[in-house]
Amino acid sequence: MAGQLRFDNRVVVITGAGSGLGKAYALEFAKRGAKVVVNDLGCSISGEISSKIPADATVAEIKQLGGIAFANYDSAEFGHKIIQSALEHFGRVDVVINNAGVLRDNSMVKISENDWDTIMKFHLKTTFSVTKAAWAHMKKQKYGRIINTSSGAGLYGNFGQANYSSAKIGIHGFTQTTAREGEKNNIKVNTIAPIGASRMTSGIFTKDILEMLSAEKIVPLVVCLAHESCNESGSLFETSGGWIAKLRWQRGKGIFFSKNFTAEDVEMQWNTINSFEHCDYPKNSIDTLQKVVALAEEANIPKPKL
Ligand SMILES: NC(=O)c1ccc[n+]([C@@H]2O[C@H](COP(=O)([O-])OP(=O)(O)OC[C@H]3O[C@@H](n4cnc5c(N)ncnc54)[C@H](O)[C@@H]3O)[C@@H](O)[C@H]2O)c1
Q1: Which keywords has UniProt assigned to this entry (predicted)?
Q2: Most exposed residue of 91, 121, 254, 259, measured as fewest CB within 10 angstroms of its CB?
């Protein structure tokens, strides 16, 4: 049986670790020997008012358990400040968990530019900013683990969350690209799309459902992805209430029009275009280009120079 996944001498930076899922992660990493940077702006669910109380409370709990942590109160959009304080306190950074986030739900009629910009800033920009600041150190030490936080709203869409869902699916695009960029230097980047009990979900679900979806049930996947033994990168996992599953792209066989074609031809082939009967699971856009070149070759269209 494998031993406990330990994080002794590892420095773990967690944004939004003052409450909800982030706090659950922070406590667990500290129990497993990590030095934890507890970042939290202490803001309301919509991103207003900042307070040191949530980050301080998480750090106090960790210290009570005999763990090592310090609080950082910067907004995660200023990643360089968070990483700088991690380096000053602990001298390195091994794991980044981009978890901070807020909500500004509004339907398309009511959503304001400010609602849009705030969500982009609090989710997408924060994820970029902390990762960017940590990246050079991870590259130099040839080691890093980054976990980014998406959402079912991003994967599937959700009424009233055009801003949030755009940011959340954007985060997985960021994961996929940084995973490729990190390959040579043992920097692994993955995305989770959790559903867990927190103030974000307390108004949505019943008490019984919230109990079933405790934040602690999101923790094991995050710990696993953050460990040095994890070779996964660029992947996306849904997790909730003790269930964990990987997602991937699925592509139908489609149809290739070798000669001039019109909108009417497309309409006529609609069922074939939508069929997943002979599907594949593409992994990059070169796959797509190679596929088109192969189809053109099959149809005796002269091969273009690549
Ligand atoms: N709870 C769920 O079911 C669920 C579902 C899908 C996605 N998520 C995502 O998981 C993450 C954690 O959500 P949660 O449910 O624990 O929410 P939460 O509101 O309980 O915790 C979020 C924490 O982030 C902090 N924060 C917000 N903006 C910040 C910023 N710019 N800098 C630093 N700290 C900031 C807040 O002060 C708060 O303590 C979020 O990214 C959320 O979008 C949660």
Answers
A1: Oxidoreductase
A2: 259
∠ CA 255-257-260, rounded to 5°: 155
Spatial neighbors of 165 by CB under 8 A, at least 6 apart, are 151, 153, 154, 157, 158
Q: Tokens 């090592």 sit at which residue?
A: 68
Pocket of ligand 1 from Cβ distances under 6 Å: 15-16, 18-22, 39-43, 45, 47, 54, 75-77, 99-102, 122, 126, 149, 151, 194-196, 198-201
Strand partners, 240: 195, 243
Atom of ligand 1 nearest to the CA of 122: 31
Please compute the mean of the pLDDT values over residues 242-261 and round it to a whole number.
96
Residue 303: pLDDT band by 50, 70, 90 thresholds?
confident
Catalytic residue positions? Answer: 164
Which of 228, 247, 266 is at the close of a domain?
247
Both 39 and 152 in a single domain?
yes
pLDDT per residue over 255-265, tens digit each? 999 999 999 99
Q: Which numbered atom of ligand 1 lies nearest the CA of 153?
A: 6
Domain around 281: 249-306
Q: What is the 3-state secondary structure (H, E, C) of 230-292?
A: CCCCCCEEEEECCEEEEECCCECCCCCCCCCCCHHHHHHCHHHHHCCCCCECCCCHHHHHHHH
Average pLDDT estimate for 120-129: 98
Rounded distance from Cα 125 to ligand 1 centre (Å)? 14
Structure tokens at 107: 């339907």
Question: Which of 247, 267, 286 is the last residue in one of the domains?
Answer: 247
Residue 302 pLDDT > 90: no
